[in-house]
Amino acid sequence: MQLYRQFILSNLLFxxxxxxxxxxxxxxxxxxxxxxxxxxxxxxxxxxxxxAAIFYDTLYTPQPEPYYYFKFSDPETYDNxxxxxxxxxxxxxxxxxxxxxxxxxxxxxxxxxxxxxxxDPILFTRDVHANKQLFMxxxxxxxxxxxxxxxxxxxxxxxxxxxxxxxxxGRFLFGDDRNRELEKIIKKEHSWSIKIPWGWEMIRSMxxxxxxxxxxxxxxxxxxxxxxxxxxxxxxxTAGQYLWNWPRNHYRSVQFSDYHFQLKNTKFKRHNAxxxxxVWETINEMExxxxxxxxxxFYDEENDRTYHINMLIHNPGNDKSLYxxxxxxxxxxxxxVR
Length: 338
Description:
Blueprint lengths: L1 H17 L15 E5 L2 H14 L3 E3 L3 E3 L2 E5 L4 H4 L4 E6 L7 H9 L2 H9 L3 E5 L7 E6 L3 H31 L6 H11 L1 E2 L7 E6 L4 E6 L3 E10 L6 H15 L3 E15 L2 E12 L7 E11 L4 E10 L6 H11 L3 E2 L2
Helix pairs in contact: 2-6
């Protein structure tokens, strides 16, 4: 707890130095799966290793895709890039000629620069040069000290980036242009609700089978919801069998692959749940399609229903991890009507 108190205090000072509440700022630029790292060539390898230890999430599509791409830029480009959504400025090499070190000395007052390099090498704040921006500084003369600090604060840092992703993408996905008409139809007919972005439509609705399939094209993003009365998630074996057999029974032309298949216990909002991740593929080889999938299986005690929410992506040759994270945000707007 003391560590985080110190961390917050240093952040407040950092925030005071760099942030002006009176300044009118536009929304930060850049994609939500890119972290802009501003440093010299001297520090690129070390900072890359430290950040990779923090942001290790990978989606298999079936090719591995990181949740965040690291984009390195020279310190001379700082003024052109300082309004990016996720910015890291760092220096480890103490050579006086290191342009990354010189940049840090310009950004931080002398006492803050000296204190952070000795005691707290990772400083963190928001909205420095733009709204909805995360800004992190890594300042130390020891790679080991930086890695140790990153390891200790890893989960806290990851949460800040994830929460910022939710804020930025939530504004994009769930603005005023949602498909509210389809939302109302689903809620009335099926006694549950979900937020549906603009451009999404009903693909299939089978009330007799308790099955709803919604989505969009270009890229293909699909979510289906299925429910049954009773509990079907008593243990890992029954949950795994239920999920594994599910696509053939409902999509009919789709099956799950055992390639990088994962099943783990997790939380879906307030429910204990099973989460399955992996790769899906079409059964018909003449119309070969595939991509990553994710499923949540959970039991809602108040309605005595087991819900299965399944997400599929098909976007060959292009990024998919960002779209899967979007689907996850949409899925977690699901709400059973009491």
